[in-house]
Specification:
homodimer, alpha+beta, Rossmann fold, Dna Ligase, domain 1, D-amino Acid Aminotransferase, Chain A, domain 1, 4 domains, 9-stranded antiparallel beta sheet, 5-stranded parallel beta sheet, 11 helices, 21 strands, 27% helix, 30% strand, globular
C-alpha cells in the first residue's frame, strides 16, 4: 500500500506536544496519522487526521486502536506493551519495537542492558527497599531512580547522606552513583528498518537546579573533537545494539576527566531535538516519520547554531493560559516560539518552547536570557 | 483579546495548498484558523481548526463566515469583496484589505495602478472586443490577458500575428506588449499594520513553455547588484503604495537591456515562496501570519540556496493519485517533497512541490532535473 495521500494509517500512541510536532511534519508527506490520548483536549486533538480519546496504557484500547493501522508508533514510552506485542505478532509494524521499548521503559533493565553490551554508564545497584539502600550506603551521594513511571524530573531524587534514606523509593528502583560531570549532552539518532543510521549534531543541556528540568540547550555542544567522537560512537552503538527502528535520544554525561557515559535514552522524539525544526535541514520529527515508515533518512546537518528554551507555566499561576511578552519576543531576530496548544497553565507545566537561531554563540546565549525575562505564561 | 491559545479566530478564505501550509505555520503559535472552501475535500479540510464548506465568492456565505472572526485573510484573490467590505465596515480586520484586493483582482485596474504610481511595467491597452484589438494591431506580438478570473496560466494567451485575432478574449481584457525579457524574477514582501516592511530574497523562475506554469525556480536569483537594487526598490514601492497588510508576491521581468518591469502581483502567499519553508529563517507562511496578526515581521534571510519544482499530475492520468519514485527522491540529500493532500490527480494538476536545498547552484539544478525524472504522480 502506498503511504502518501492514501488509505494508509500511521497509529500514534500519545497526543502531547511531541505528537503535535510529528503531525506538522506528517502534513508535508500527506500521511494519515491516527492519534490516541486520554485527554480530549490533548495538543494533537485538533490537528490529527483522526483523534481517538482513550488510554494508551490499556490493553483493550491499544489493541482495538491498532486494528486499522499499518504502522504504529509512540510519542511517549509508558504505553501498553502487551497490546503492541500482540499487534506485532499479528503482522502490524510496531516501531519502535515493543521489545526495545520494554528495555528502555524500565530504568533497571535499561541500565543492565548497558552493562551487558559494554556501553559506558555510571555504576549502579538495583534496590527494592530502604534496607537495600542502607546496605549500599557507600554509594552515596547517588541518584535514586524509580524503575518505572519516572518522567520529566519525577521519579528521580538525589540521596546525599544517611539522613536522606527516609526519602528513598520503596518500589523497584536503582541507586546510581552521582557523577562529577562537567556537561550533559545529547545526540538524537535515527535508524530505519533497512538498518540505515543517522546522527543529529550534539546538543549541550543546561539544567535549572530548582525544578530539575532542562532550562535551555544549545547546539552544537562546546566539546572537544575527542569527546565528540566518543559521544557519536556511543550513540551509534546503543542504537545498533538496541536495533531500534525510529528515533533514539541518547543523553550522556561528560565527566571531569574526559569520559562520556550514557545517562539514559528515550525511544522517541525528544525535548533535546526541538531546535532541529529551525536549525537543521531535516527535523527530528520528519526523521522519526522517515524511520518508522521505512523511508530513506534525511540530512541531519545544521544550517545554523541554535538554542532552545522550555516555556514553563509561571509559578503561582493556574488556569486559562495567557502569554505575556509575545510581541516583544517575536521582535527579536531569530526567535521562534512554539506553543503546545494547552488552554490551561499550572506552575512549571511545559506550555511550549522557544527556538533561537544565531550563528554567534554568545549572542545566542544573551538572547536566551532576554527571552527568559520577556516571555511568561500566566493565567487570566 | 490574546491571539495565542485563546478564543481568537483567524478566518481564512480558501482552503487549498496555500492555506494548508499557512495552517502548518499557525500550529506553531497555536492560532485558531477557521477555513472556508467549497470543496469538502480541500487540502485544508482535515487540519484547519474549523472547516466550513461553502463558497468564498458568495456574499451571504462570506459575510456569515466572518461573524465570529477577529481577523479575516485570504489564500486566493477571487473572493467576494462586498462581503469583506461590509465586515471591515463593521469593525473586523480584513487583511489584505478589500480595497487592495480590488486593485489586484482585476488585471486592468492593476496595470492602471502601476501607471498612476510611476511603477515600471510593460506598455498595455485595455480592450473589450476583437475590434479593440484589431485597432491596436501594431502592439502585437502581445499578451492578451483577461481582466478578471485568470489563474495559473489560464486567462492569458499570446497573440503573435493578425491570424491569432479570432482567439482574442471578448470579455474586458488588456493587451500587453510582449517583453523581450532575459529573466523572470519575483520578490515576496510583507507589510504589517504598523507599516514595517520586509523583503524575501529574489527568486528566479524557469517556465515550462508548453503549459505556461513555473517549472522550477531557484533562489537567490542570478542577477547583478544593479538589477537586484531595482527589483528591491520596485517591490518595496509597490508594497508601500498599495499599503497592503499581508504578503505581496511581486513578479517582475528583467529586460535584455537591464531594466526591471512589474509583471503582476498577488496579495497572498505564492508559489514563488514555497522554498522559504526549508531555506529561510522565517517562511512566507509564518510571515503572512505575523503580518495579518499585527506581529513583528520575521527574519527573511536565506540560510541555504534552494530550488522548488512543482509536482504536477502526469499527462494521461486521471483518478486516485499514486506517487511513483518517492523513496528514490527522498534518498537524495536535501530533497523535501510537500504533498497537498489531493486524493485525485488529473493532467498538470498541482499535486505538490519539491524543495531542494544545496549551496552549490549547479548541483542544485542537477538535482532538479533528477527529481523531475524520478517522481511522478499517476493514477492507480
Amino acid at each position: 500500500m502506498s503511504i502518501f495521500s492514501s488509505d494508509f494509517k500511521l497509529g500514534l500512541l500519545g497526543g502531547g506536544q511531541l505528537g503535535r510536532m510529528l503531525l506538522q511534519a506528517a502534513i508535508d508527506l500527506d500521511v494519515h496519522v491516527k492519534c490516541l490520548d486520554p485527554d480530549p483536549e490533548a495538543p494533537c486533538h485538533k490537528i490529527a487526521s483522526e483523534f481517538i480519546q482513550g488510554s494508551f496504557q490499556d490493553f483493550d484500547t491499544v489493541y482495538a486502536f491498532g486494528q486499522d493501522c499499518q504502522v504504529i508508533t509512540i510519542e511517549i514510552e509508558n504505553v501498553n506493551l502487551e497490546a503492541l506485542e500482540k499487534l506485532q505478532a499479528e503482522g502490524k509494524k510496531v516501531f519502535p519495537q515493543p521489545e526495545v521499548i520494554r528495555i528502555i521503559q524500565d530504568k533497571r533493565i535499561q541500565k543492565q542492558f548497558y552493562l551487558d553490551n559494554n556501553l559506558p554508564t555510571a555504576d549502579f545497584v538495583l534496590t527494592d527497599s530502604i534496607e537495600d539502600i542502607r546496605k549500599n550506603i557507600g554509594f552515596l551521594p547517588a541518584f535514586n531512580k524509580l524503575g518505572k513511571g519516572g518522567y520529566d524530573g519525577k521519579g528521580v531524587q538525589k540521596l546525599t547522606t544517611e539522613a536522606d534514606l527516609s526519602l528513598a523509593f520503596t518500589q523497584p528502583s536503582l541507586l546510581e552513583k552521582a557523577i562529577d560531570f562537567e556537561k550533559e549532552i545529547a545526540i538524537i539518532t535515527a535508524r530505519n528498518e533497512q538498518g540505515e543510521v543517522k546522527l543529529f549534531p550534539t546538543v549541550e543541556m543546561v539544567f535549572n537546579p530548582v525544578h530539575n528540568l532542562v532550562e535551555y540547550l544549545f547546539a552544537p555542544a562546546e566539546i572537544s573533537e575527542d569527546i565528540l567522537k566518543q559521544a557519536q560512537e556511543i550513540a551509534r552503538n546503543v542504537t545498533e545494539k538496541l536495533g531500534i527502528v525510529g528515533l533514539l535520544a541518547v543523553e550522556m554525561f561528560v565527566t571531569q576527566d574526559g569520559k562520556v557515559l550514557i545517562n539514559e535514552v528515550a525511544p522517541r522524539t525528544h525535548n533535546s531535538g526541538h531546535h532541529t525544526i529551525r536549525a537543521n535541514h531535516t527535523s527530528q520529527f520528519e526523521q522519526h516519520l522517515r524511520a518508522v515508515l521505512s523511508l530513506p533518512l534525511g540530512d541531519t546537518t545544521a544550517h545554523s547554531k541554535a538554542a532552545m528554551v522550555n516555556l514553563l507555566g509561571e509559578d503561582g499561576y493556574s488556569g486559562e493560559s495567557k502569554y505575556v511578552g509575545m510581541k516583544e519576543t517575536l521582535a527579536i531576530e531569530g526567535v521562534y516560539p512554539f506553543l503546545y496548544g494547552k488552554k490551561t497553565t499550572k506552575p512549571f507545566r511545559k506550555m511550549g518552547h522557544i527556538t533561537l537561531v544565531d550563528n554567534n554563540l554568545e549572542t545566542l546565549k544573551q538572547k536566551v536570557s532576554q527571552v527568559q525575562h520577556l516571555l511568561k505564561v500566566i493565567s487570566e
